[in-house]
Design brief:
about 240 residues; mainly alpha; about 80% helix
Length: about 240
C-alpha cells in the first residue's frame, strides 16, 4: 500500500533515501520500540502498556538536555520525576520485582524517545513518506527475523490477513503523520496530542477487550498525563513570552 503512494506522490527517484543512514538509524530504533511494545501488549492490558509508553515525551526532554544541551530547569525535572512515579504506579512492581512485560513497555518508551531524537537529525530534503515507508520495511524485515528465531509459523486465516492489512494501513499513515508533525510543528503544540493515546487505549481496552485498569494504574495514568501536559504548557508559555519580548 505504501509503495504505490510513493509513486503517486512523485517520490520514485527518492526511493533510495529509504536506505539513508539517518533514516535507517531512526527506524532501527522504531523496530526495537515496536518489538518491545508488541510483546508487552500481548501480555498486558492495552491501557497499562500504552500508559507506560506515555513517558516518551518526558524521556525526549531528558535526551534533548543530554544530547543537544537544552536546559530543563528544576521545575521541569520535578515534573519529569512525577511522570516516572506515575509510570511505576502503572507498572506496579511486587516483592518479586517488576513484571518483564512492564519492563518491555518501558523499553518501548525509551526506544521511542530515542527514535524521536534521531528523527530530528534526518535531513530536511528527505520526504516524510520516504521515512514512513522505510520504517515499514525495516520493521517487516526485523520482525520477520525475530519471528523465525522465536516463534512457530502458523498460516493466517482470512480475518487475520484483513486485520493485518488494516493495521498496516494505519501504521503507514501513523508513521508519516507523527514524523511530519514533529518536523514542521513546535513540540509544545504536537506533544499534547501524544497523551490522547492513553484515553483511546482505556476506551478500546474496555470496549474491545473488556479490560479496565485498577485504581492505582488509573492514578498513575493521570499522573503521567498531568506531568506531561504541565511541561508542555510551561514550554508554550515560555515561547509566547519570548515572542512578545
Amino acid at each position: 500500500m505504501g509503495i504505490p503512494l510513493l509513486f503517486s506522490l512523485g517520490y520514485a527517484r527518492q526511493i533510495p533515501l529509504i536506505l539513508d543512514r539517518r533514516v535507517l538509524q531512526r527506524n532501527l530504533l522504531e523496530l526495537a520500540a515496536i518489538l518491545c511494545y508488541v510483546v508487552a501488549l500481548a501480555n498486558m492490558q492495552i491501557a497499562d502498556s500504552t500508559a507506560l509508553g506515555q513517558i516518551t515525551p518526558l524521556l525526549v526532554l531528558v535526551g534533548s538536555s543530554v544530547i543537544f544541551r537544552e536546559r530543563i530547569g528544576g521545575l521541569r525535572m520535578a515534573l519529569i520525576g512525577l511522570g516516572f512515579i506515575g509510570a511505576v504506579m502503572v507498572a506496579q512492581p511486587t516483592t518479586q520485582g517488576i513484571s518483564i512485560y512492564a519492563l518491555l513497555a518501558l523499553g518501548n518508551a525509551a526506544f521511542a524517545a530515542a527514535r524521536d531524537l534521531a528523527g530530528r537529525q534526518v535531513a530536511a530534503n528527505v520526504p516524510g513518506m520516504i521515512v514512513a515507508i522505510s520504517a515499514v520495511v525495516v520493521v517487516l524485515v526485523g520482525s520477520g527475523v525475530a519471528h523465525l528465531m522465536s516463534e512457530r509459523w502458523v498460516m493466517p486465516e482470512t480475518h487475520h490477513l484483513l486485520l493485518m492489512a488494516g493495521a498496516g494501513l494505519f501504521l503507514i499513515f501513523g508513521h508519516f503523520f507523527i514524523f511530519m508533525a514533529y518536523r514542521v510543528g513546535p513540540t509544545g503544540v504536537v506533544a499534547p496530542f501524544y497523551y490522547c493515546f492513553t484515553v483511546w487505549a482505556v476506551i478500546s481496552g474496555l470496549v474491545v477487550f473488556q479490560e479496565f485498569p485498577n485504581a492505582l494504574a488509573i492514578g498513575g495514568i493521570l499522573l503521567v498525563i498531568a506531568s506531561g501536559l504541565t511541561i508542555v504548557s510551561l514550554d508554550e508559555r515560555r515561547r509566547r513570552l519570548t515572542v512578545v519580548a
